[in-house]
């Protein structure tokens, strides 16, 4: 049999959870999960001799979320911070969708990171070549090629799963590492696209007319660019693709039960390939929005520490694979990333390096508890019964 | 009805298949030979021979594929291409460089060093998956072992205690994973990923909290796992030098993992407790019916697997690298998992696969040195060679299908009745 999976197929967490208009159980699980994750992480902070309340307050103050409450704080400061948060939310939405789309097809795409790399490499290489192309066309070319590069990188895992049954969890993890080292080669010393050598080699800069226009805040101070709308648009595309097309129907059918889908005449292997390619194109877009929006080049040291693709897993799980859920989960993690960054967090309150790892702990706890929704719900019911 | 005898046409087909098989195997052999000729000690300095042998191997492969011997045929094609590429690449380096890089003894010793953490991980994975629990979290448990191994060692001043602390923490991590995977019947792949994230976060947090920007202190000899010196091997005539290079100075943990491999093979496949373990992984309902406690077995197996993975981690930090840095396992837990699958869920197979991946890591480390004066820039930058273990793992996972069957209940939560 060719379908002897080397690992059991990754069971989707209710592949159709997002289709229902309202999903009260899902909302409850997500909320409880978030609260418990922050509580436990707070205990870690407490146990290592820091004040968790001050820490969380300092992190929150850096996020700019206070801007949403009228009349609070320094408005222009808060606006600038919120722009940063939304800048970080943008790739998280897209990487979250990359994971969510594969989940809806019954697959676990841990390769968002590699697909994000592929997209960002394509964007920076094309954006720094061919100066003669007019700006808008060049931007479109960069974005399209980034999506394509992500699709190819995800599609490799999909192709291997479809033809040989290689489990996507292992193959996507391997593809992440391959993408990382290819980037270290591309933009590292003696690489083909490096601009300056030295201690931390960086890639060529993309041309000025390929920068995505900033629509909120100052372009010089890294305001919010229109990449944010690419992410919002992707949320709608995700919804329409799944719920209003034949392809989406087939993807969901495979996600529910591959055997039944095959019995119903659906080409399961083709759907594995397509679903991972589409997943990859979402993550590839995330790479494009980062490069064209505010990074403008890739530093080899950034490649080593980037984890936006992995955060996408927590975003998708917390958002229960639905577009609205993904949006809010991405906002949460975008805010956390900005609030714990060395630029925003006061080191006298809490070391930003520690805070970065705190984000990882919260992310892990979120995935741990969302995965165990049976547990969360049973505890919830027990509490309600006790009342 | 009697069994139909082999008709002449069928017999002819069988013999044709056999010969196609032989041609394919011949192709693989000459392909590898072509590559080997370019390396020390032969060092052909002309590309003609490896390319000729490579083309011959590709031809043999295609001939075999056309006769339905697919797997071996493609293997021969790959070996032929390998030979051609190797022949061209080797000429980009100088003889002296090649000689310094390809000292086979050193390379094999490095292979064993790299294979050891993978084997620990794979053995852990075997115990867990034979009981029916998929362990994607090997990576995280290994990372916990890395950090707590070095922390325990530095704090107590003895590597033995460091190793024990690493095993305790690895076991605890695995036990927590077990609570979610076994008791709450959560999706094992998702929970495993969660444990991996948590491990990166917890070890990174504690690393910064405890050691700050300077990193872990230099280890004294009491704090690092010692090497075993067997230099008397050098006195053996003929092969003594080579044996000394490979086995003369290996870390204690390398020998330990080889002993563990044999012990675990005996335990899982030759004892009644091992049989119970496997029955829980194959058919938990039946095992339950005859009175085996499925949950208890799985908890024990998962905890043991965490301890084994953590031993691999501790070897990495206090036996091999002698320091800790963030996320230092670099996907080794997943490569260990691939080695387990490649080795068909058996200890010796997993070790062989781990050696293959370890060899590619050793090669990736050694090869760039051969090209420091090369004119081809992509060979100078070592980055691309670093992809080698991952590419190989990808190929192995893709190529293994149809021959490797997981325990039947692997990854399926069990509901007590």
CATH class of chain A equals Mainly Alpha
Uncertain stretches of 5 or more adjacent residues of chain A: 1-20
Category from helices, strands and their pairing of chain B: mainly alpha
Which pair of protein chains has the largest interface, and what are the residue counts? Answer: A-B, 64 and 56 residues
Mean pLDDT of chain B, to the nearest integer, reads 85
Number of strands of chain B: 2
- Tell me the overall shape of chain A: globular
The major beta sheet of chain A can be summarized as: 2 strands, antiparallel
Spans of chain B of at least 5 consecutive residues whose pLDDT stays below 50 are: none
Describe the model.
The complex is a heterodimer of chains A (387) and B (417). In chain A, helix 4 (112-127) packs antiparallel against helix 5 (135-164), helix 4 crosses helix 12 (308-318) and helix 5 packs antiparallel against helix 10 (268-295). With 387 residues, chain A is mainly α. In chain A, strand 1 and strand 2 form a beta hairpin. Chain A is built from 15 helices and four strands. Chain A has one domain (24-386): ABC transporter involved in vitamin B12 uptake, BtuC. In chain A, the strands form two sheets. A two-stranded antiparallel ribbon of chain A has the order 1-2. A two-stranded antiparallel ribbon of chain A has the order 3-4. By secondary structure, chain B is mainly alpha-helical. Chain B has two domains: 8-91, no CATH class; 114-352, no CATH class. Chain B contains 17 helices and two strands. Chain B has helices at 8-37, 48-66, 70-91, 95-101, 104-130, 138-156, 159-183, 188-211, 240-247, 252-270, 272-282, 284-289, 294-321, 332-342, 347-366, 377-380, 388-399, and strands spanning 227-229, 249-251. The radius of gyration of chain B is 24 Å and the shape is globular. Classes of the chains: A mainly alpha (387), B mainly alpha (417).
């Amino acid at each position: 049999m060719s379908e002897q999976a080397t690992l059991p197929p990754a069971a989707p967490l209710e592949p159709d959870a997002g289709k229902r208009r309202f999903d009260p159980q899902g909302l409850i699980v997500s909320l409880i999960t978030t609260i418990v994750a922050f509580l436990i992480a707070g205990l870690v902070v407490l146990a290592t001799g820091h004040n968790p309340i001050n820490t969380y307050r300092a992190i929150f103050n850096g996020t700019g979320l206070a801007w949403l409450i009228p009349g609070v704080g320094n408005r222009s400061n808060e606006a600038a911070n919120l722009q940063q948060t939304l800048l970080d939310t943008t790739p998280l939405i897209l990487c979250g969708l990359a994971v969510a789309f594969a989940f809806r097809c019954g697959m676990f795409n841990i390769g968002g990171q590699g697909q994000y790399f592929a997209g960002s490499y394509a964007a920076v290489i094309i954006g720094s070549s061919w100066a003669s192309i007019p700006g808008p066309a060049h931007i479109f070319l960069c974005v399209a090629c980034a999506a394509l590069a992500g699709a190819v990188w995800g599609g490799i895992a999909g192709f291997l799963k479809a033809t040989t049954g290689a489990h996507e969890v292992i193959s996507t993890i391997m593809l992440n590492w391959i993408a990382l080292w290819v980037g270290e080669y591309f933009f590292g010393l003696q690489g083909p696209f490096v601009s300056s050598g030295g201690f931390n080699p960086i890639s060529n800069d993309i041309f000025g007319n390929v920068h995505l226009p900033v629509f909120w805040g100052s372009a010089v101070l890294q305001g919010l660019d229109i990449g944010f709308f690419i992410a919002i648009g992707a949320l709608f595309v995700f919804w329409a693709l799944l719920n209003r097309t034949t392809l989406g129907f087939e993807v969901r059918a495979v996600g529910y039960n591959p055997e039944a889908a095959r019995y119903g005449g659906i080409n399961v292997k083709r759907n594995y390939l397509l679903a991972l390619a589409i997943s990859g194109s979402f993550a590839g877009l995330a790479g494009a929005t980062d490069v064209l929006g505010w990074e403008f080049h890739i530093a080899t040291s950034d490649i080593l520490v980037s984890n936006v693709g992995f955060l996408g897993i927590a975003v998708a799980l917390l958002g229960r694979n639905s577009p609205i859920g993904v949006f809010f989960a991405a906002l949460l993690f975008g805010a956390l990333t900005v609030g714990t960054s060395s630029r925003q967090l006061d080191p006298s309150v809490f070391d930003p390096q520690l805070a970065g790892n705190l984000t990882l702990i919260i992310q892990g706890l979120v995935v741990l508890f969302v995965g165990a929704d049976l547990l969360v719900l049973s505890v919830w019911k027990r509490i309600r019964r006790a009342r | 009805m009697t069994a139909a005898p082999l008709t002449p046409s069928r017999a002819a087909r069988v013999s044709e298949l056999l010969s196609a098989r032989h041609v394919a195997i011949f192709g693989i052999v000459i392909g590898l030979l072509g590559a080997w000729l370019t390396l020390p000690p032969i060092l052909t300095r002309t590309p003609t021979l490896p390319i000729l042998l490579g083309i011959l191997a590709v031809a043999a492969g295609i001939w075999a594929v056309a006769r339905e011997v697919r797997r071996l045929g493609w293997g021969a094609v790959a070996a032929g291409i390998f030979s051609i590429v190797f022949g061209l690449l080797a000429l980009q380096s100088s003889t002296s460089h090649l000689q310094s890089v390809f000292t086979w003894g050193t390379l094999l010793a490095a292979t064993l060093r790299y294979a050891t953490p993978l084997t620990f991980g794979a053995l852990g994975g075997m115990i867990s998956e034979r009981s029916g629990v998929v362990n994607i979290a090997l990576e995280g448990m290994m990372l916990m072992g890395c950090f707590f191994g070095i922390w325990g060692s530095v704090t107590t001043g003895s590597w033995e205690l460091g190793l024990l602390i690493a095993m305790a923490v690895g076991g605890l991590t695995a036990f927590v994973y077990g609570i979610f995977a076994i008791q709450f019947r959560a999706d094992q792949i998702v929970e495993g990923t969660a444990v991996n994230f948590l491990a990166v976060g917890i070890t990174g947090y504690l690393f910064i909290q405890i050691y700050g920007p300077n990193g872990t202190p230099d280890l004294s000899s009491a704090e690092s796992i010692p090497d075993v010196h067997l230099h008397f091997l050098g006195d053996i005539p003929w092969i003594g030098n080579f044996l000394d290079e490979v086995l003369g100075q290996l870390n204690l943990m390398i020998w330990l993992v080889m002993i563990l491999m044999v012990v675990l093979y005996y335990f899982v496949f030759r004892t009644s407790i091992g049989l119970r373990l496997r029955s829980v992984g194959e058919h938990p309902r039946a095992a339950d019916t005859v009175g085996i406690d499925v949950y208890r077995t799985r908890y024990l197996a998962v905890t043991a697997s965490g301890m084994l993975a953590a031993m691999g981690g501790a070897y990495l930090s206090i036996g091999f690298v002698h320091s800790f840095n963030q996320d230092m396992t670099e996907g080794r837990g997943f490569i260990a998992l691939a080695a387990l699958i490649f080795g068909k869920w058996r200890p010796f197979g997993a070790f062989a696969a781990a050696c293959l991946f370890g060899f590619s890591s050793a090669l990736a480390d050694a090869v760039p040195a051969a090209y420091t004066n090369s004119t081809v820039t992509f060979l100078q930058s070592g980055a691309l060679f670093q992809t080698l273990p991952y590419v190989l793992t990808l190929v192995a996972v893709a190529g293994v299908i149809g021959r490797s069957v997981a325990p039947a209940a692997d990854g399926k939560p069990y509901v007590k009745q």
